[in-house]
């Protein structure tokens, strides 16, 4: 998954939700509390000490002035270490801190760090910080994505959560004293949220994704109805198709990667197979196979069959809805209608074209675990 910078997507977050609690993670399991990590990076602790000494010098008053800009800069450096060996810097938090998310709560920095260690063992989380900014006199809001793989289940389902965290600052200590999470995928973010628990359970279902290379993308937002992804550029080999759920032309593009090209080169298989309708009427449809990311247009052999072409897509922002079962034309059109309606309802700007992504061999995969997606490219998306 790409971790490309999102500076072009940053805008001010909505300020209509303001509890003063937080916890950044979606589940909690009883484990033996881990020992304190005595190998935490001294460099990170030193930086926070320097920050505090600078703040103390800013004012002769008993309660020093809080430099919120410095705290924002600190979060950009510290939060990406949430689940790595370095870890976050506990010196930046009061001992008594209120952490909350929809299904977890802790009232101390020790409890919060224990929960992070537990999540690391069970889910191998990948935490991505999109932005952090001051949103109140003693308040900073961050936007993030967390992707977790539940390693205890045989199919190792991938759980995705996106949202914002509101972090309160204690002006007497210049440290964080509250932290509350809001998930984009639920409405009731209060603790304890049954809706939040259902959201976790729902993501444990089985989808079979082949162990093949896929186009690289970063999940920016996950709602109850769809994901918003930022795709890196990728190259496809394509030919004319008949309709979104059709297979006409597949053997021709598959033949290209199996060696039916100008140099008889065999190219590794990837997933998914895309079918793209370029307009709302389906008057022009192409079926596409994504080529490996280490290939370029100049390094690929020319197609040897008429009607086959290579094309580089520039990537961009797309919304995706996932579903299982056989993707018939009626099913695909209904999913497209649902997705487009949800995007317009949420104030986004979907383009008129759409794509079907099929990840599985229908002859070798049970219908109920098939992974299919309908994607629609978006215009003027802002990650607020």
TrEMBL record:
InterPro entries: DUF2358 (IPR018790), Reg_factor_effector_dom_sf (IPR011256), SOUL_heme-bd (IPR006917). It comes from the Eukaryota. Gene3D superfamilies: Regulatory factor, effector binding domain. Pfam families: DUF2358, SOUL. SUPFAM superfamilies: Probable bacterial effector-binding domain. Transmembrane segments: none annotated. Belongs to the HEBP family. This is Soul heme-binding family protein. It comes from Solanum tuberosum (Potato).
């Amino acid at each position: 998954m790409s971790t490309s910078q999102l500076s072009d997507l940053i805008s001010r977050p909505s300020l209509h939700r303001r509890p003063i609690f937080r916890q950044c993670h979606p589940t909690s399991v009883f484990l033996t509390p881990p020992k304190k990590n005595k190998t935490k990076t001294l460099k990170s602790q030193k930086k926070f000490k320097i920050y505090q000494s600078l703040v103390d010098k800013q004012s002769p008053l008993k309660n020093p002035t809080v430099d919120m800009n410095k705290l924002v800069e600190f979060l950009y450096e510290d939060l990406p270490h949430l689940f790595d060996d370095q870890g976050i810097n506990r010196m930046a938090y009061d001992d008594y801190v209120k952490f909350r998310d929809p299904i977890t709560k802790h009232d101390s920095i020790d409890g919060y760090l224990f929960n992070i260690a537990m999540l690391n063992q069970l889910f191998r989380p990948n935490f991505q910080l999109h932005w952090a900014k001051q949103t109140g006199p003693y308040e900073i809001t961050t936007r993030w994505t967390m992707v977790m793989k539940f390693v205890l289940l045989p199919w190792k389902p991938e759980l995705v959560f996106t949202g914002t965290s509101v972090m309160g600052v204690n002006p007497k200590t210049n440290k964080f004293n509250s932290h509350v999470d809001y998930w984009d995928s639920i409405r009731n973010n209060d603790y304890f949220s049954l809706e939040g628990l259902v959201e976790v359970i729902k993501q444990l279902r089985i989808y079979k994704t082949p162990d093949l290379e896929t186009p690289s993308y970063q999940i920016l937002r996950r709602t109850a109805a769809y994901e918003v992804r930022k795709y890196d550029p990728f190259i496809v080999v394509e030919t004319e198709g008949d309709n979104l759920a059709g297979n006409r032309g597949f053997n021709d593009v598959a033949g290209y990667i199996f060696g039916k090209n100008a140099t008889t080169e065999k190219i590794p298989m990837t997933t998914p197979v895309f079918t793209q309708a370029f307009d709302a009427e389906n008057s022009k449809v192409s079926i596409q196979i994504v080529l490996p990311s280490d290939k370029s247009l100049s390094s690929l052999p020319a197609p040897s069959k008429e009607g086959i072409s290579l094309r580089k897509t520039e990537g961009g922002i797309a919304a995706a809805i996932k579903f299982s079962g056989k993707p018939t034309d009626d099913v695909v059109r209904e999913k497209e209608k649902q997705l487009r309606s949800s995007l317009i309802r949420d104030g986004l700007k979907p383009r008129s074209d759409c794509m079907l992504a099929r990840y599985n061999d229908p002859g070798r995969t049970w219908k109920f675990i098939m992974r299919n997606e309908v994607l629609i490219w978006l215009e003027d998306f802002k990650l607020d």
